[in-house]
């Protein structure tokens, strides 16, 4: 009898909490479903963890529009740049093991490391690889138009120019995270993917995760990337498998994985009795280490209106409703992710989706924090974020409309098309071969990226969208005084013709 009374008492006292929890989940779910419709997202995953418990976990939609196969708890999505936080944690493990210091010079561990500035080459510290403020211009074209080893990618990066004094600015830089992956191998003796799998995936319980993106096809249960093209609507895009810069963003994982990952984050790097990272090191990852400029932060700052914006080790940071929010997005070829945590409230959120730059992810992050940290359902985050990014889409449409309007009709190239053929080179970006075919000119970058280009006007050509990035890219050829082609400009870079 006493046990029955006790059980009834527990249920009576617990029911308001359970009811409130269910209400918040329903509110979040309703926003997500409306958001998926408006953003036209095929598949999505959301997980929210509070105080070590899963308070929201749901897979939505399909991983492939043709097969209609549903997203499930083990479907792999790319973590993209949310990978960066894991790579920083891996370095932190080496710090805890006494094998590495954050202030070690990079060249102590990577003697071949070289930048375009001699002082920066010698001064660069391990931590500088992680904070995007070393002072060297980003060079994502290195992996967008070529596929060479990580070491060769870093060797070529030595041509990237200094843009500001050391630690005096902010320029998001994926290549430096690739260097961080090389540091992990140099110090531990294991490739960074093996080190992460053994020291993070396994103890945390990320059993589906793969650190080499090319390995997803062996797993079988992975999502398909999509893009909402301005002209053609929703189209499937190619998988980006740029494992040469994998430490910058090539880990794939599942809803099951990130549920365990969030629990590990809110528990300050401890899993059960297993301490993955010491408290001091874990806290250090989340300390502000660099100021972030307005231009380098997310457009959602127009809605959140932060007083300050910083970067930790693998985390963007800002104040939100009086609390410090650490978060990071991931975007790569038709797939997106976001991870966020308010550590003082033990609430963490993770979102995956298979639609390029589906910014519903931001709405889910802030709505989840409103509901599970502040007990507040007053703000329609989907509506605000959708309106904000719809304006950017209209600006993009205006740009292409203007581009087409300014095309000069009935012009011809200065020379016959066969005169544009040949090999062109760039000291950092490699080789481009131009061939004249019956269909027009084709540019082959490093036997990796083929771009059919069509005459636009004068000596300017425009690529078709038949490329992995579904991008229209302009190519401006320069003719010398001797009436021969000397070079072409593309991607704001100059490729010089070889005689």
Strand order of the largest sheet: 2-1-14-13-12-11-10-9
Quaternary structure of the protein: single chain
Distance between termini?
97 Å
Number of helices: 14
For the biggest sheet, the summary is: 8 strands, antiparallel
Return the average pLDDT rounded to an integer.
95
Gross morphology: globular
Count of distinct strands: 22
Q: Low-confidence parts, pLDDT < 50 over ≥5 residues?
A: none
What is shown here, in short?
The chain is an alpha+beta fold and 499 residues long. It is 33% helix and 23% strand.
Index terms:
eight-stranded antiparallel beta barrel; 22 strands
Q: What does this molecule look like?
A:
With 499 residues, the chain is α+β, with helices and mostly antiparallel strands. Helix content is 33%, strand content 23%. The protein has 14 helices and 22 strands. It has helices spanning 2-39, 83-96, 106-109, 118-123, 141-144, 150-157, 174-188, 192-204, 216-219, 255-266, 279-285, 301-304, 360-372, 381-405; strands at 43-50, 53-61, 77-78, 226-229, 233-236, 252-253, 270-271, 274-275, 290-291, 309-311, 316-320, 323-332, 335-342, 347-353, 422-426, 430-437, 440-445, 449-457, 460-463, 474-479, 485-490, 493-497. An eight-stranded antiparallel sheet has the order 2-1-14-13-12-11-10-9, sandwiched between helices. The protein has an eight-stranded antiparallel β-barrel with strand order 15-16-17-18-19-20-21-22. Strands 3-6 form a two-stranded antiparallel ribbon. Helix 1 runs parallel beside helix 14 (381-405), helix 2 runs parallel beside helix 7 (174-188) and helix 2 crosses helix 8 (192-204).
């Amino acid at each position: 009898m006493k046990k029955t009374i006790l059980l009834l008492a527990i249920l009576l006292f617990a029911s308001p909490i359970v009811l409130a929890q269910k209400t918040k989940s329903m509110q979040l779910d309703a926003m997500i479903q409306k958001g998926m419709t408006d953003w036209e997202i095929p598949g999505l995953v959301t997980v929210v963890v509070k105080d070590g418990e899963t308070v929201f976990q749901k897979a939505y939609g399909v991983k492939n529009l043709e097969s209609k196969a549903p997203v499930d708890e083990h479907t792999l999505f790319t973590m993209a740049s949310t990978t960066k936080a894991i790579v920083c944690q891996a370095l932190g493990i080496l710090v805890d093991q006494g094998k590495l210091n954050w202030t070690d010079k990079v060249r102590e561990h990577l003697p071949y490391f070289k930048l375009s500035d001699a002082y920066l080459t010698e001064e660069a510290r391990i931590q500088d690889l992680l904070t995007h403020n070393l002072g060297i211009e980003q060079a994502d074209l290195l992996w967008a138009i070529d596929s060479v080893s990580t070491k060769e990618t870093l060797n070529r990066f030595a041509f990237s120019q200094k843009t500001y004094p050391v630690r005096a600015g902010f320029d998001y830089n994926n290549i430096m995270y690739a260097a961080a992956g090389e540091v992990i191998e140099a110090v531990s003796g294991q490739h960074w993917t093996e080190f992460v799998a053994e020291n993070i995936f396994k103890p945390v319980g990320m059993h589906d995760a793969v650190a080499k993106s090319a390995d997803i096809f062996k797993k079988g249960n992975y999502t398909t990337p999509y893009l909402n093209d301005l002209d053609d609507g929703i189209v499937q895009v190619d998988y980006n498998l740029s494992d040469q810069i994998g430490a910058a963003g090539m880990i794939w994982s599942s809803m099951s994985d990130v549920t365990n990952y969030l629990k590990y984050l809110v528990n300050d790097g401890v899993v059960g009795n297993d301490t993955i990272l010491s408290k001091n090191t874990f806290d250090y990852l989340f300390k502000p280490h660099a100021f972030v400029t307005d231009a380098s932060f997310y457009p959602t700052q127009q809605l959140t209106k932060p007083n300050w914006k910083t970067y930790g080790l693998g985390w963007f940071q800002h104040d939100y409703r009086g609390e410090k929010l650490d978060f990071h997005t991931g975007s790569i070829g038709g797939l997106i992710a976001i991870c966020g945590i308010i550590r003082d409230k033990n609430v963490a959120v993770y979102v995956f989706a298979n639609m390029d730059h589906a910014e519903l992810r931001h709405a889910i992050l802030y709505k989840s924090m409103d509901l599970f940290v502040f007990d507040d359902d007053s703000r329609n985050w989907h509506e605000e974020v959708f309106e904000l990014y719809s304006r950017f889409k209209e600006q993009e449409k205006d740009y292409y409309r203007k581009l087409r309007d300014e095309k000069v009709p009935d012009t011809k190239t200065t020379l016959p098309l066969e005169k544009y053929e040949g090999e062109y080179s760039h000291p950092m970006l490699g080789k481009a071969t131009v061939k004249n075919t019956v269909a027009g000119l084709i540019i082959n970058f490093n036997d990796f990226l083929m771009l059919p280009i069509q005459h636009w006007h004068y000596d300017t050509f425009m690529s078709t969208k038949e490329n992995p990035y579904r991008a229209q890219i302009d190519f401006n050829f320069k003719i010398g005084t001797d009436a021969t082609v000397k070079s072409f400009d593309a991607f704001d870079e100059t490729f010089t013709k070889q005689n």
